[in-house]
Amino acid sequence: MENKIYFLGETKDFYLAQQLYDLVREDFDINVRVAVLQKGCEAPCDIDVVVCEFGENVKTSAKICTYSVGQSNADICGFNFMKREKSRSLDLFSMSFMGRVNLPVESQFSEASVLYCAAGLVAAGNALPQVLKAINAKIS
Question: Among 16, 51, 80, 107, which one has the highest count of C-beta atoms within 10 angstroms of its own C-beta?
Answer without folding.
Answer: 51
